[in-house]
Amino acid sequence: MSATNEQSLRQPAAPQPADLGPMPVWDLRDLYPGPQSDAVRADLAKAAVEAKRIKERYEGKLAALAKQGAPLGKAIAAYEALTDTLGKLGAYAGLLYASNRSDPEHARFYGNIQEQLTAITTDLLFFELEINRMEDAELAQALTVPAVARYKPWLDDLRKEKPYQLEERLERLFHEKSLTAYGAWNRLFDETMAGLRFQVKGEPAPLPIEPTLSLMMHADGARRQAAAVALFEVFKDNIRLFALITNTLAKDKEISDRWRGFKDVADSRHLANRVERPVVEALVGAVREAYPATAHRYYALKAKWLGKPKLAYWDRNAPLPNQPQRTVTWAEARATVLKAYGAFEPRMAAIAARFFERNWIDAPVRAGKSPGAFSHPTVPSVHPYILMNYQGKPRDVMTLAHELGHGVHQTLAAPLGPLLAQTPLTLAETASVFGEMLTFRALLAAATDAEERKALLAQKAEDMINTVVRQIAFYSFERRLHEERRAGELSAERIGQIWLEVQGESLGPAIELGAGYETYWCYVPHFIHSPFYVYAYAFGDCLVNSLYSLYQDAHPGFVGKYLAMLEAGGSKHHSELLAPFGLDATQRTFWQKGLKVLEGMIEELEAM
């Protein structure tokens, strides 16, 4: 990366064309001064030496150390410290790459770091495998010593993977081949999508994907349609490549699942999420059962508002008629979210404020930048970073609230250290969706105009449909795709057909899925990077609805219990975290309770 580009990642961006005001670009120097810095080279060298030292000192000896107790704790502590260094290197390369996937230097640096980290961690494969070869009695004896007992939640989670682990030589092969297997296909998807440009009728120049998707929420129906057509035309021209990527990754996963002994296509994701299949099935069943009472009902209502017998798919997220089209500046968005967080708990607002004050957020839209938004926890020894593509829309304010919820959660859990701080995806979405709910409720309470209240309720209902109904439909799409892939490669046309069937079931008869929509599966990054991730959004949203109901009902000690849940990171199972609130995720009635919140909003909109 040139000196000029490096400087551009340190300074706030210039005001955006939509008069959004100055916006921050993240300062990655808290990780490393630059990709060619001595600090990067030193950490790579130190990590390689430490990995070999751990291998030479502990390989074949962990069971004996367990009998002594404290020495096993010392070995795990060394392994944890090295995990932090490796995570820091990987996070820096990933964030730099996300800032501009079109920059060949960023891509090359990212690829080189991934190769070196894979080589280093190959020396560490023995560690977790050897722990899992211990007898239960041996490990139980070691856990009586405080130095080992500290890691009990991590060790418990590790033991859950024992039935699916292979012998070390096979694990080494899987690990080293990951660079040229799913890792390479992931990178091909990212760089292809970042390079696509969409010529929208009426726009002076082709647009990247993020602003093109944003036009699907434009007040002018012709602009929405033009964006939809532009997306379809480009997707269609590239659909064979995206079908190849999808087929290859689905087959790669099937091979891995088969060797490891996973029976269901989503079982490996459930294990990673530390959630049981019956819990996910209860969630999916409740949401699918509620399709008519939620999405079908809402979109029929919206079609009436827009004066149409049916909504074209590009009208799904259209603003309401006569809805004020106000642009929210970055300063306003910041003030809105921090005020909402502060009203709930000042400590949360104080943590969130650091992200703005210290340039831990990359906010503006840029060509080549990763689309969407995320909060990357990096490692406990540093701090999270947030990526946004802020365009001044009310939904962008909610996205900011969502990502800051992740950031606060990751910050609160960080003191647990690298092995215990990481939260399973299902629970990781709780804080983010709760942050959205706090911000929404604050805006709704401040609304004095009936039309403003209607617009806020409609936007929240749509967001919840996108988070719950749409994500469960995505999960259903993935299930069908992966199940059919086991019998052979799927054509792009067949994938599109599955997509239309699943989307039609979830969105209902009021949405017309016209020509072109059959290609829209191809841009969803979760299908590529993290198969079956998507149900975590619905899990988090329904869970938050139940939690927020308790908060509104003044549940005893709610704020303290909520912060304790965030501070627990990945050190407790979801059942333990929900127990203080009297909630049980294994019951379908739990998920139905969350869905009733959405139904209540739709009822209020119908009454308006």
Architecture overview:
The protein has 608 residues and is mainly alpha-helical. The chain has a domain at 31-180: Butyryl-CoA Dehydrogenase, subunit A, domain 3, CATH 1.20.140. The chain has 28 helices and five strands. The chain has helices spanning 3-8, 38-58, 62-68, 70-99, 104-122, 125-132, 136-142, 146-149, 152-160, 168-177, 182-195, 209-214, 221-260, 267-273, 277-289, 292-305, 330-344, 346-357, 394-413, 418-421, 425-446, 450-485, 492-507, 525-529, 535-552, 558-567, 574-578, 588-607; strands at residues 311-312, 361-362, 374-376, 385-387, 511-512. The strands form two sheets. It has a three-stranded mixed beta sheet, sandwiched between helices. A two-stranded parallel sheet has the order 1-5. A hairpin with an 8-residue loop joins strand 3 (374-376) and strand 4. The radius of gyration is 24 Å and the shape is globular. It starts with a helix and ends with a helix.
Topology:
Elements: H1 3-8, H2 38-58, H3 62-68, H4 70-99, H5 104-122, H6 125-132, H7 136-142, H8 146-149, H9 152-160, H10 168-177, H11 182-195, H12 209-214, H13 221-260, H14 267-273, H15 277-289, H16 292-305, E1 311-312, H17 330-344, H18 346-357, E2 361-362, E3 374-376, E4 385-387, H19 394-413, H20 418-421, H21 425-446, H22 450-485, H23 492-507, E5 511-512, H24 525-529, H25 535-552, H26 558-567, H27 574-578, H28 588-607
Parallel strand pairs: 1-5, 2-4
Antiparallel strand pairs: 3-4
For the structure shown, list the relevant keywords.
two-stranded parallel sheet; three-stranded mixed sheet; 28 helices; mainly alpha; single chain; about 600 residues; globular
